[in-house]
Amino acid sequence: MKQALIKLHISVFLAGFTGILGALIRLNEGLLVWYRIAITVVTLFIWLSWQNKLERISAANVWRLMGTGALIALHWVCFYGSIKLANVSIGLVCFASVGLFTALLEPLMMHKGFSWAEISLGLISLLGIYLIFHFDDRYRLGIFLGLACSLLAAVFSVLNKKYVGVAKPQSLMLYELSGGLLVLTLLMPLYLYYFPTNYIFPGLEDWGWLLALAWLCTVLAMDLMLQALQKVSAFTQNLSLNLEPVYGILMAFVLFHENRQLKSSFYIGFALIALSVVLQMIRVIRRRRV
Asked: Of 7-11, 21-25, 108-112, 130-134, which one has max mean pLDDT?
């Protein structure tokens, strides 16, 4: 269990860079996610084929995993759309509401009772999110996309927990993201028609950021997260992901000087988010010992 929690938090730290990299890459959110997934899928396919570790699974499970991957892709599009329309801080703060969404959705999707302790911890975390950033009406669409991103993240995390035993993490990731790549490829002509852009192909600097995003923040981070999900609940995963906005916001303050919006409430909010994560970790460890 301790190793699973360590892997989970390493993956969360790596995920904290995704918002920063999204702001640095000049592509719009749709193309950015398409390139991210394409690089990841090609990398995983070559690696697993070379290692002879690509697992064959039933057609029914392939479609289930690809459907989950489509949700992941749409989640990323909403996430980067929030960042592009608002800023890194808002996109990441909205994403931290995923813990509460999971506490509400997981019992419904997994046909089990509600955990009022988890809902309470999710509300503590949500209060911390509110205190970290006072939203501006100018960023309304960015906030909406950020919350949509959180809802999608909660759904696919619960599904990941449900299908985590279907294949090993890297094969699972390949099947899922292949579904995401397929859906985005089919939607891309329509997407570019309504959201035209001057940047269709990445520049040299963009390629560097995209490779870091795909290899470190996607392949490595998702592999560690899927390994952790074999031992921890979807709620524990998503509650831990509430630390991702904190890491990302601190980086945004340093790199993009978003600290102009930083107030004392940030520290109070950070403490509440950290408290909710620590309390859940204590609950998980105690239940495992019992």
From this structure: 21-25
* Residues 70/156, Cβ–Cβ less than 8 Å: no
In the chain, what are the domain boundaries?
2-289
H-helix or E-strand containing 100? Answer: helix 98-110
Q: Distance between CA 240 and CA 15 in Å, rounded? A: 11
Burial class (CB within 10 angstroms; exposed 0-12, middle 13-18, buried 19+) of 268: middle
Exposed, middle or buried: residue 208 (CB in 10 Å: 0-12, 13-18, 19+)?
middle
Note the pLDDT of residue 136: 57
Residue type, 41: V
Which has the closest alpha carbon to 119: 101, 137, 94, 143? 101
Q: What letter would DSSP give residue 126?
A: H
Residue 125 above 60 pLDDT? yes
Whole-structure pTM value = 0.83
Q: Give the up-direction half-sphere exposure of residue 219: CA atoms within 13 A in the CB hemisphere.
A: 19
State residue 208's pLDDT score: 96
Angle ∠(27,30,34) on CA atoms, nearest 5: 90
User: 100 with 125: CB under 8 angstroms?
Assistant: yes
Angstrom distance (rounded) from CA 10 to CA 118: 22
CA end-to-end span of the chain, whole Å?
13
Write the DSSP symbol of residue 258.
Answer: G
